[in-house]
Amino acid sequence: xNNESAENTLNKYPGLDVDLDxxxxxxxxxxxxxxSRGLSIAGVIKFSDGAPEIAKAYSEGGCxxxxxxxxxxxxxxxxxxxxxxxxxxxxxMISEADEAIRWCDYSLNSEETVLQALDEAxxxxxxxxxxxxxxxxxxxxxxxxxxxxxxxxxxKVERKMENLHLAGIGASFACVSGVLPxxxxxxxxxxxxxxxxxxxxxxxxxxxxxxxxxxxxxTANQPLPPEINHLRIGGAIANPIGIRLNRDVKIAGMKDxxxxxxxxxxxxxxxxxxSSGPGKNWAGRTVEFExxxxxxxxxxxxxxxxxxxxxxxxxxxxxxxVIGGSSDHTVLDVTESETDxxxxxxxxFRMFYMPLLQCFATRHVFINYISxxxxx
Length: 376
Description:
By secondary structure, this protein is an alpha/beta fold.
């Protein structure tokens, strides 16, 4: 099966193979890991352009909700699988309030005016919409600063917005400023949860303590405050190689071979390792290369339009080095490789999160879903 936005022609490159069995396995492993610590999971699929195939693998692995920052993704998933619970993890735009109510079971919020728009939209639709209020405990992206302020808004939602249900509160980490979750900042969220519950006279269903970054604490046997009962996890399920290499997070049973990108070689030549003079590259950056003499280089038909940053590719051939690229080309040093690469050959990669995101966002990468025991 190919990406709907690509021309459906077999054996096209660049191509991204997606192992749905491995993703479902990872969702199940993550579900059990988190459940044993009192946590449920919203499986974040925003990297996949809302692919229903990946949403299904997450859901069958045990994710309580399927989450994305884009309403169009959740619409696509709801249309394919109406029973899946969907969560919009970016504050809804007021202009999309009616559509948010239609396609999302939950949304994250921090603005009273947005909540009022959602309340009115839910009333028009005859629905009750679940909201999670976000608190900024240090990252400085979305969220209300201060327990008093978030408690006041929570009480307004509970008592005055009759078409909204206050499902819980949450926080984000390591998104804008790089602030990591720890006992101190998570305790601020826990304190707010307790205060809100005291004011509204009931328990909150969800206290969402963050995302994949919280796994750094959990795998180091650092407990979260007991009030935290939910995480929003995406990349660590779908592409655990990224968090393993970037954050040293390792969870037994997770499979790295969920995605494999294949690109075709279009040139191989011996070339000097440094350019002939100074200047800025296509992106306006000054790039300097170490003089290693003449090296064997391969150019592949793959560039930033396909994968954003070539430096975030991980070649399967350990002897290959990614030198750089432009919008349509990536240059590899293949001098040390045992493979005698020639035009028409292919090179395969795993990758970090950014290239994966771009692969699904562009119409130039062909997406091939593999399941039922097939392997990449």
